Amino acid sequence: MAAVAASRGSRLLGRFGPQLARLMSSGAHGEEGSARMWKALTYFVALPGVGVSMLNVFLKSRHGEHERPEFIAYPHLRIRSKPFPWGDGNHTLFHNPHLNPLPTGYEDE
Fold this sequence. Notes:
With 109 residues, this protein is mostly helical. It is built from two helices and no strands.
């Protein structure tokens, strides 16, 4: 009984297999329209988004100096269990004396 059902199932799959495979392939969803859609998204969404982001960065950078936050010596921040392997061992690799405080405070205060 099981063998008969299996042979009927395989005959059905054999008959509808190519059509089923074609329907499930990506070509059945309109391949020619897909490229046009992605091209339009690139020109009308992605490139204007990059342009707006560049304008935002440019306008924000023109404001000049900004106030740095007040130094508060929190005990869980800026822990130095061993010195850094560069410089004097107390400054981070990309240390900015205006923005990055040392464990004792800002350098120029």
